[in-house]
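COURSE: Structural Biology Practicum
ASSIGNMENT: Worksheet 4, Part C
STUDENT ID: 0417
INSTRUCTIONS: Below are two proteins. For each, the amino acid sequence is given first, followed by its structure token string. Answer the questions at the end about the second protein only.

PROTEIN I
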Amino acid sequence: MDPRGEDLIRLVLDMTPGWHPNMRKLFALADPGSCFPIDIRTSVPIAPWKSSNTTLLGDAIHTMTPGQGVGANTALRDAALLCRQLVAASIGGQLAGWSLLDYSAAKAAVIHLTRCVAVELGERGVRVNSVSPGPILTGLFGKAAGMDAAQADDGASVLEPVFVSRLQSWQPIHRAGAAGDVAPVLVWLASDAAVFVNGQNLAVDGGITAGRPASVSAADRAAWRRHSGRRVDDPVTAERSVSC
């Protein structure tokens, strides 16, 4: 049986008597010339295979109908699941004062959850790691600065001078972080190159969690010396500086 056109529309209506009237009206108004059958087949489920560092997404692994982008949608859901294994943390989970209390506490929990899940799943061949971005200049900051939400992603770059100025006392690498700084780290964690990395939190923050820029600390010491009345080149001061 290979119904076509109006025969196929009648068949669909006969099979959907309990569907919403609006849906059935769409079926009834369909163009008969555009209606054709598609054979859909299923397969017997197979046993799971051993986990590895390579995976398949969407209809490359799930048998899907060839219409309405179902395979692509399933690929997106698979990608979301994969991303949850590469947990997004934040330097706010390691350093207090960089964000609101509840946000920092939640991110600290995410980092420790990463470790807990890593030791649970590591024996099954599943690696779980987290990435803690520092201040990354994205549309999020643009929206916080009052930009129109539709323009914030493209227009956030205008904030870069202020961004860099505010970070220069805290971030050793003196430039604004970008999404392109974080993405390669995620790709590396998901690759075979990181096959022995598990339960780790990688900070992509220009060195903020490592410590303040050396030049800032040096300027502070010079200010202390000036305040104490000693010259910067005073032999006693220099000796104490070396001993520190």
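PROTEIN II
(use this one for the questions)
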Amino acid sequence: MADVFSVVFIILGFWVALPALCLTLRAFWPGALERSRAQTAEHPWRCVFVGLGVLLPGVFVSVFVASQPAAAKPIGLLLFAGLFLYTFVGVSGLVTHLGGGLRSPSDEARPWLATLRGALCLVMSATIPFVGWFLICPAALVIGAGAMTLSLFNRAEPDPRAAASAGSDAAFMSAAPQAEKLEMVQARA
């Protein structure tokens, strides 16, 4: 019985921690997250192929370095943690895109709700046995790594009108005059 409770609490921990991480990354790096969201919306297959090219060597190098003698283990762990953080900024863009498809009237006042909704959907679907573990979770990580990498090479800010329709707050971060922002909010209502 204790084994069942430990598995349940580990799953609940993931359900709380990973959406919180997505929201934290949204707060720290809104520009990178918005560019990642745009990449997942516009070029999903390109994100997959670029993500495979980033993650496979990155995981291999970090595991190889971590498997070396004692002095190299912390370096390998730092490489893996950095790769995870890098990838999860892109995953946060992916969940913002997913959450944008689940629009709500309250998104105008709180655009971060799209990230929360998308993160909850992704985390809950990733806990489905076998399909979530071996298909959804790896696919999200690969797409996230690719989206983040592509967003580094495409530093142009996404179109605020397209971002606003996707449930993003890039429209409110732009340099558009206040009257234009009000028109955009009223047009969405």
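ANSWER KEY EXCERPT:
Q1: The mean pLDDT is 84.
Q2: Residues 2-188 form one domain.
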